[in-house]
Design a protein that fits this description.
Helix content of chain B: 40-55%
Shape of chain B: flat
Distance between the termini of chain A: 34 Å
Structural class of chain A: alpha/beta
Number of helices of chain B: 29
Oligomer: heterodimer
CATH class of one domain in chain A: Alpha Beta
Number of strands of chain B: 20
Structural class of chain B: alpha+beta
Number of helices of chain A: 10
CATH architecture of one domain in chain A: 3-Layer(aba) Sandwich
Radius of gyration of chain B: 30 Å
CATH topology of one domain in chain A: Alkaline Phosphatase, subunit A
Largest sheet of chain B: 4 strands, antiparallel
Largest interface: A-B, 91 and 97 residues
Largest sheet of chain A: 7 strands, mixed
Strand order of the largest sheet of chain A: 4-8-2-11-12-3-13
């Protein structure tokens, strides 16, 4: 898919049937690229978190095929191991980090359910409560800490993307709510954020589904939305008084969402200025091929960052514990079943094919960021992305020595081209503190963090 | 052996008045009861492990006072479950004989039930956000607008096997944005916004996720004419009386002129069915000789609106069968009117004759809408803020625009989007109370219809008539007979039995012959089957025992049923006992398989969890996986692989329960086709339960479930139905209600309606616990 920058006439136009539709943009919602609050000298840093489920082959020296993922050498002289090879073009922008852990993904007396705990811990570092529903609890996730701090600058505080539909019926993992495996993002300890898997819905979330490009009409629309939200808040306040405490907290969630969108409207009104925006064909259905779907979602992620609609994105390459098959690369077994390979050489080979495909897709995203201009550089210059999993060895369900790669320029704050090994069980949350700091979000502590990593 | 009910009552009375030690002597003197006293029995068989020191599995039965069994309901419900299923006392320990155990469980059951009747604990469901299906249906019933706007919302999380669980349904900013956007779209369509801008929407035939475009050689929808093949049929809501541009893009046809298969025509507003299909050429052999160059031929492409032909296009087919790639509809262009739609008829209950009528008419329209949307009597305070929206819209446009703006706001009101119940004022004594009739009406409609109450139900509730059991019963019957109860089949049935998942499974097409037609057929079979259970008010046991099902040609072929032609579904008798009931249906067999093989474990687990209500504990970490080859390198059958796996003692404990159930279904491959061999070995579909009971094949398993496990199956059905009806997980204190539902159903030959009515009559459905102060 090609994204080009283009100035649109202010009048609505629709081309003939079947051709590319003009972006049905709500001009107010798409800020001018020139109107960023940041300056060229100090561009905003975007944060991305890309997750792969079921671990990766060859991370740990104790697992099978140890040299497939983790480079043998440390420091700047390392060589790319085969599974990471697609990222080699970005060597000087990339850090390979070994030895990091999410120890709260371990059972700690809760028995099975490592996939649920993996999904729930990756960005939280908090041991999730084992429950099917009534009282889910993990911790606020790093992306949401960032969203909370950076959200004031953008229309959307964050974007949660995924590529796999949740189960429609039945359970997910061993007595854990599906929320733990379906998302990485926790707005609060009890509020998981749903992942959007439909590119069209993402597109409409970014740019709206109206077809008006007239700024005056857009302002009127925002004004109307604001009055609807006022009405909703008033109703909520009236109801709160009449309900019990548990019910009140349910409604509080709704009220919080109202506040969030009010902020978005405010933001959009401020930016209702000149219109220079990228165009992109409005996606229709979910593409059949995994690769097409992944690339389309990544295009949308780039578009969201490029237009500064949001600065924080999470993306799940599949649900944690996913058992999808990848026929386009000749793997017809389910991913999760395969990762319990029990050292079967053939199965390991097939898992490696999947691992490689995921990395290739991530490389597509990085490449795209690198080729997208942003201020005085590229989007990649002004981003930090973490790629990896909260399971290391999918066969043994280990949560230490996780596969973690960090890519991006972080506005000159990240010195890439290195492989760093940390002592066993160093919390991944420490790295998350570093990442947050790169985006100018300063927190001393969250989850099980013990302090930022040195030398990042 | 059953304990005489009179004796049970006597025991209970004595248990209350007499000291514990002497109380139960009475039972031992009775020939029917074979245990001395519960205390003695438990001391003898249980407290060896379940005492204050060992507390095995966190349970001590040392301090349980059996004269006050109700106070210990939480632990005693566990005891009851474990003893009844035979899991406790564990194998290898001394166990009471069957008569004693059953007398004990009967006594315990009845004691707990009596205590629950005296002191009901109905629980308290949280406030409940409408889920996607409920939102769609509520819009449909509120506005006579059947456009499934719930599909525009993010997918809901599920818990306890269902996606209508109040605690799990959360609200995020992304969701609220979708609500706002949906409210705008819905209100524009319902009122008919004359200023709406033209848009182009594209529709595609279902594609196989792996094979792509299906190119089917059959009639693909009941809405398309007989003798047609391929194409697609879909519903489209034409927002206004206006012109629309329809363009078909065929696949496999070269043309330089994309407008060749296009037409522009006036269409009246409303929901209409658009179809594109091809005329089947019956003179052609469907199986061309292999290698023969595909002859080119003329094919007619038939474009239809609401069944009537709009145009017949002539195409030249070369090579692969022509199929529709997509259909796009653009419009509305040059609108002439808002149109006379069912939605407008439903919304505009009055028409202002003059300017001074406008205010009162708007109030009347909005009062009617709010009444339905909030599902309760309306107050001025409810309507007033909406009138402000009306006035604003009226200022900028006409009367209808005003109503549209008010409707848009109404659709994001928390009282529409959430189901809320209130504690009665005054509190105090009413810690446990009946929900109000109006609240009960909503509970009922969301249970049976996944939607808001209709006017008839709401009116009965507002007149306080639902308290009357016979009125309530009448409404249940009426609502089950209404087509809206289809929701119960799709949402309850689809999630209980998992057949909803057929839409997303991805069997490997290199291994199985699996395509769009089979996918659709499998889903439809079980949906029709479940529907027939409810419509014909059959026994819930027929879910397993029925000697009929529904098939079309594709599915009959899959099952090896001869003499069925054409894509339409019809009811057929089943002579092969193995195909009877849901255990013989491809939908269930496919969703419990892996993409490339069957799963004995998943199938066994499915039976345990969904039919027997005893989910196996989850697997331990670091499970050794299966080895597909023996030491001699020869491929092993699934059974051989599993048997090897079970030599591991850790695994064996659970697999001994799951696997035999799954093995019985091994004659069905990963998509439910009958087979007699696996990996070159003949299928051995025999199994034995841990207690040694042997059975063989699907028919043997079904038979076992219908005889020895009948009560357990019925209880499980009651449990699932109650979870779904309440929208919450069940707790120990719900077990008496589950048993009473199962008992009531048994009295009426397990009819579906008796099961449903018993749920409606149960304490947790009718009552509610007040909030903690």
């Amino acid at each position: 898919m090609i994204i080009t920058k283009k100035a649109l006439p202010r009048r609505t136009f629709l081309r003939g049937l079947g051709t590319t539709l003009a972006l049905p943009l709500l001009d107010g919602m798409v800020p001018a690229l020139s109107a960023f609050t940041k300056t060229a000298a100090n561009p905003a840093v975007r944060l991305g978190f890309t997750y792969v489920p079921n671990g990766i082959i060859g991370v740990s020296a104790t697992g099978p095929r140890p040299s497939q993922w983790t480079p043998t050498a440390e420091g700047s002289a390392f060589e790319f191991a085969p599974l990471m090879k697609p990222l080699e073009p970005f060597r000087d922008r990339l850090l390979v980090l070994s030895g990091l852990s999410q120890v709260n993904g371990r059972a700690l007396g809760d028995g099975p359910g490592d996939h649920a705990r993996a999904g729930a811990t990756w960005l939280t570092g908090v041991h999730p409560k084992k429950t099917e529903g009534a009282d889910i609890r993990a911790g606020v996730s790093a992306d949401q800490i960032a969203a909370n701090a950076l959200g004031m600058h953008t229309e959307l505080a964050s974007l949660e993307l995924g590529l796999e539909q949740p189960f429609l019926a039945g359970g997910c993992d061993s007595g854990y709510s599906c929320a733990y495996t379906n998302t990485l993002s926790w707005r609060g300890p009890t509020t998981p954020l749903p992942v959007e898997i439909n590119p069209r819905a993402v597109f409409e979330r970014l740019f709206g589904d109206s077809d008006s490009t007239d700024p005056a009409a857009r302002l009127a629309l925002l004004d109307k939305q604001r009055s609807i939200l006022d009405y909703v808040s008033a109703s909520l306040n009236r109801l709160q008084a009449r309900l019990g405490s548990r019910d009140r907290s349910k409604l509080a969630e709704y009220l919080e969402a109202v506040r969030d969108i009010e902020r978005r409207i405010q933001r959009a009104e401020q930016q209702n200025a000149t219109i220079v925006l990228p165009t992109m064909e409005r996606p229709n259905a979910i593409p059949e091929e995994y690769e097409d779907q992944a690339k389309l979602m990544m295009d949308l992620q780039v578009l969201a960052w490029q237009t500064d609609m949001t600065r924080v994105t999470t993306m799940m390459m599949a649900r944690e514990g996913s058992n999808r098959s990848y026929r386009s690369i000749g793997v017809s077994d389910g991913h999760h079943s395969l990762t319990h390979h029990q050292n079967d050489v053939e199965k390991i080979e097939r898992v490696m094919k999947i691992d490689k495909l995921h990395v290739e897709m991530f490389a597509y995203l990085i490449d795209k960021l690198q080729s997208t201009p942003d201020g005085d550089g590229t989007l990649l210059d002004h981003s930090v992305l973490m790629y990896g999993s909260s399971i290391s060895d999918g066969n043994a369900h280990t949560h230490h020595d996780l596969p973690i790669v960090v890519v991006g320029g972080a506005n000159g704050q990240l010195r890439g081209g290195r492989h760093i090994r940390y002592p066993r069980d160093t919390p991944l949350n420490n790295l998350l503190l570093n990442m947050l700091a790169k985006a100018d979000v300063h927190v001393d502590h969250f989850g099980d963090s013990t302090g930022p990593l040195s030398d990042i | 052996m059953r304990v005489n009910i009179l004796i049970l009552i006597l025991i209970l009375i004595l248990a209350v008045f007499a000291p514990a030690a002497g109380a139960h002597r009475q039972t031992s003197s009775s020939p029917a009861a074979a245990f001395e006293s519960p205390r003695a029995l438990v001391d003898h068989y249980c407290v060896g492990c379940h005492n204050d020191t060992l507390k095995t599995a966190g349970v001590s039965l040392r301090a349980v006072d059996f004269t006050k069994a109700g106070d210990h309901a939480e632990v005693l419900e566990r005891v009851l479950r474990k003893v009844r299923s035979g899991e406790m006392p564990p194998a290898g320990k001394p166990r009471p004989d069957a008569a004693t155990a059953s007398a004990f469980t009967a006594w315990l059951e009845s004691t707990l039930d009596q205590s629950a009747t005296a002191h009901p604990n109905p629980g308290r469901p949280a406030i409940h956000r409408l889920n996607r299906a409920e939102y769609s249906n509520a819009i449909r019933d509120l506005l006579a607008l059947d456009i499934k706007p719930g599909s525009w919302l993010p997918i809901d999380d599920s818990g306890y096997g269902f996606d209508n669980i109040a605690d799990v349904l959360s609200t995020s900013p992304a969701l609220l944005e979708r609500y706002l956007s949906a409210a705008g779209k819905v209100s524009r369509l319902a009122v008919g916004d004359i200023k709406v801008k033209p848009v182009v929407e594209k529709f595609e035939p279902p594609r196989d996720p792996q094979l792509g475009l299906a190119r089917r050689n059959e009639r693909v929808s009941d809405d398309l004419p007989f003798g047609s093949r391929g194409g697609l049929s879909f519903q489209y809501y034409f927002p206004l009386d206006a012109e629309y541009q329809i363009r078909v893009t065929p696949a496999g046809v070269q043309t330089d002129d994309p407008s060749r298969f296009e037409m522009r025509l006036p269409v009246q507003a409303g929901l209409r069915t658009l179809g594109v299909t091809f005329l089947k050429d019956s003179t052609k052999d469907e199986n061309e000789a292999p290698g023969a160059p595909p002859p080119s031929s003329q094919v007619g492409m038939d474009l239809r609106l609401d069944g009537a032909r709009l145009k017949l296009f002539q195409l030249t087919q070369r090579g692969a069968r022509i199929e529709v790639n997509n259909v796009s509809i653009g419009g509305p262009y040059n609108p002439t009117a808002r149109g006379e739609t069912p939605s407008r008829a439903r919304i505009f209950v009055c028409r202002p004759a003059s300017a001074k009528d406008e205010g009162p008419c708007a109030r009347s329209i909005l009062t009617t809408l709010v009444h339905r949307a909030f599902r309760r009597p309306v107050t001025t305070a409810d309507v007033q803020p909406l009138l402000a929206f009306y006035e604003r819209g009226r200022r900028d446009g006409d009367f209808d625009d005003g109503i549209e703006k008010a409707l848009e706001a109404l659709l994001v009101s928390p009282e529409f989007l959430f189901r809320m119940e209130q504690d009665p004022r005054g509190g105090g004594a009413a810690r446990v109370h009946r929900v109000s009739d109006v609240e009960l009406a909503s509970r009922l409609s969301f249970f049976l219809w996944s939607s808001i109450p209709d006017d008839e139900l709401l009116e009965a509730a507002e007149h306080g008539k639902l308290k009357d059991p016979s009125v309530l019963q009448k409404h249940v019957r009426r609502m089950l007979d209404d087509p809206r109860s289809q929701a119960l089949i799709a949402n309850f049935g689809g999630q209980w039995l998992y057949f909803r998942n057929v839409a997303t499974v991805k069997p490997d097409p290199d291994i199985f012959r699996f395509d769009v037609s089979l996918r659709e057929a499998l889903q439809k079979e079980t949906a029709l089957f479940f529907d027939s259970m409810v419509r014909e008010d059959r026994s819930v046991l027929d879910l397993l025992a029925a000697d009929y099902t529904f098939v079309n040609e594709r599915l009959a072929q899959h099952y090896g049923i001869p003499g069925i032609y054409g894509p339409q579904f019809r009811r057929v008798s089943i002579t092969d006992p193995n195909r009877r009931g849901v255990l013989g249906q491809g939908s269930i067999l496919t969703v419990t398989s892996y993409p490339n093989r069957t799963s004995v474990v998943q199938r066994g687990k499915w039976v345990l969890e969904n039919l027997l209500g005893m989910p196996p504990p989850p697997p331990p970490a670091n499970v050794p996986s299966l080895t597909p080859h023996g030491q001699d390198g020869k491929p092993l059958s699934m059974r051989q692989q599993m048997e090897q796996h079970r030599t591991n003692a850790v695994c064996a404990a659970c697999h001994a329960r799951m696997d035999p159930l799954g093995f019985a279904l091994e004659n069905y491959d990963g998509v439910g086709k009958w087979r007699t061999e696996d990996a070159g070995s003949p299928i051995d579909a025999s199994g034995a339960l841990p207690d040694g009971t042997r059975f063989e094949g699907p028919a043997g398993l079904t038979n076992l479930l219908l005889t020895r496990y009948r009560d357990q199956f019925v209880r499980t059905a009651a449990e699932k139905l109650l979870i779904y009806a309440l929208g919450r997980g069940l707790e120990y204190y719900d077990q008496p209600a589950v048993r009473s539902i199962a008992r009531e159903a048994a009295r009426d030959n397990y009819r579906m309606s008796s099961l449903i009515t018993a749920v409606v009559k149960s304490a947790p459905f009718q009552m509610r616990k007040a909030s903690e102060p």
